[in-house]
Amino acid sequence: MKKANLGLIIFLVTLIITACGNENKVETTANGNNTKSVTFTITEMDCSSCPFVVKSSLERVKGVKTVEVTITEGVQGTAKVVFDASKTDVKTLKNTVLELGYGVKQ
């Protein structure tokens, strides 16, 4: 039980640190599995439903665990994705957003 709590705490701290970083930062969580997180800057999100569209599409990618998409300024936003690196990768996540017609800053 204590191991699970420690793992959860380490994961949450890593997620918070990752959220404060810059675009496209990839961090491996400290719980020893293949879980990674990445934050992208997404451009051309010009309506209030854009974050929902991006989030829904990313959630359908096999291996994605959690997605948070927000508009940060104007038509630009961020997508924070936690995923299983044994099932998907950063390139696949980027391509998913690009196929929707949005831009992804690197």
From TrEMBL:
Give start-end of the signal peptide: 1-19
Which controlled-vocabulary keywords does the entry list?
Answer: Signal
Q: Does the keyword Magnesium apply?
A: no
Q: Where in the numbering of this chain does the HMA domain appear?
A: 36-105
Task: Tell whether Signal is among the UniProt keywords.
Answer: yes
A GO molecular-function annotation:
metal ion binding
SUPFAM superfamilies (UniProt xref): HMA, heavy metal-associated domain
What protein name does the entry list?
Periplasmic mercury ion-binding protein
